[in-house]
Amino acid sequence: MELLLDSNKRYSYADYLTWADNKVRELIDGFVKIMSPAASTIHQEVCGNIFANLHYFIKRNRSKCKVFPAPFDVRLPKNGERADEQIYNVVQPDICVVCDPSKIDEKGCVGAPDLVIEIQSLSTARYDLTKKFDLYENSGVYEYWVVYPYEKGIEVFILQPDGKYDEGTKYDSGKIPVHIFDGYEIHFNDIFSR
Questions:
Q1: Helix (H, G, I), strand (E, B) or coil at 143
Q2: Are 115 and 52 in contact (CB under 8 A)?
Q3: Angle at 150 between CA 149 and CA 156, to 5 degrees
Q4: DSSP states of 58-122 as a string?
Q5: What pLDDT is recorded for position 1?
Q6: How far is Cα 128 from Cα 109, in angstroms, rounded to an integer?
Q7: Which pLDDT score is estimated for 2?
Q8: What pLDDT does 80 receive?
Q9: Domains of the chain
């Protein structure tokens, strides 16, 4: 049975938890965005390559940080609320790294991850660079990567002391620094190898 949701109604995370169908959804300011049902092969390969690099680095260095691939609920409360009925922003980034263990619970993450990576598809590009960009910036996500699998490019945004992202740095070769970890870089070719 298909779940019918009102596109003009504002929903909370408590509502979100009651939706027992197989659709992947996100909430931005309480409004529902239905996500694509399945990612492309190249999307999944790029996602897997980045995840494997981060996972290996974190394990090798015995970091307290944790890396999570989608599906993984990231709840971004506006004023530090933690009650499900008070949270109106829930996203599922392709990859996120959380370094504060107190933000991780059995449902996912509550609060801003340190690093969020979104891998673009034709259906999500505008959404990731507008609504999600603003949400991540306003929520205090320190480092935001936007990965373009078809164009083979990466854009990295770093949160500045004024609470705004910088203009972004584009990469199409070489090594990409992971700013949340001192001295750690991922080689561009390791991300896009197939």
A1: strand
A2: no
A3: 40
A4: HHHTT-S-EEEESS-EEE--SSS--SGGG---EE--SEEEE--GGGEETTEEES--SEEEEE--T
A5: 53
A6: 19
A7: 59
A8: 77
A9: 39-192 (3.90.1570.10)
Residues counted in the chain: 194
Calpha distance 147→154 (Å, rounded):
4
Give the tokens for residue 162: 């004024």
Residue written as tokens 């890396």?
Answer: 67
Partners of residue 123 on adjacent β-strands:
none
What is the tens place of the pLDDT at every residue in 102-156? 999 999 999 999 999 999 987 777 877 889 999 999 999 999 999 999 999 999 9
SS3 content of the chain, % helix, strand, coil (to 5): 25, 30, 45
Report the alpha-carbon distance of residue 34 to residue 53 in Å, rounded. 29
Q: pLDDT under 50 in the chain at which residues?
A: none
Angle, vertex CA 74, rays to CA 156 and CA 89, nearest 5 = 95
